[in-house]
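Hi all, long-time lurker, first post. I run a small reading group and we've been trying to get comfortable going from sequence to structure in the token notation. Rather than ask abstract questions, I figured I'd post a concrete chain and ask someone more experienced to write out its structure so we can walk through it together at our next meeting. Sequence below, copied exactly:
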Amino acid sequence: VEEGGVEITFFGERCRVPGGAARLALRTGAALVPMAFQRVRSNRPEVTLLADFTIEVKSTGDETADIQRITENVFQAYERIILRYPEQWYMFREMWP
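-- Answer (accepted) --
Happy to help. Here is the structure in token form:
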């Protein structure tokens, strides 16, 4: 995996994202669970936790390919969440060149 991140497809466009979470999960056996908070009401500190427990962290012996695959799966989970609640998504950095 290059220092510049892992190249994935996110909302139909190629971009680079950090692959550290996938690398850590592979090396430690930890679960990888993408999560987000859905705000229930405006101006209230009430949220619903959205979590995707479908990410399979399994080593094939090719760490680079595994990190890319797992990272892609994580971002597919985020796509599903964002598509359900697009008004609650904020991009903290530029994703696409």
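A couple of things your group might point at:
The first helix runs from residue 20 to 28.
The first strand starts at residue 6 and ends at 10.
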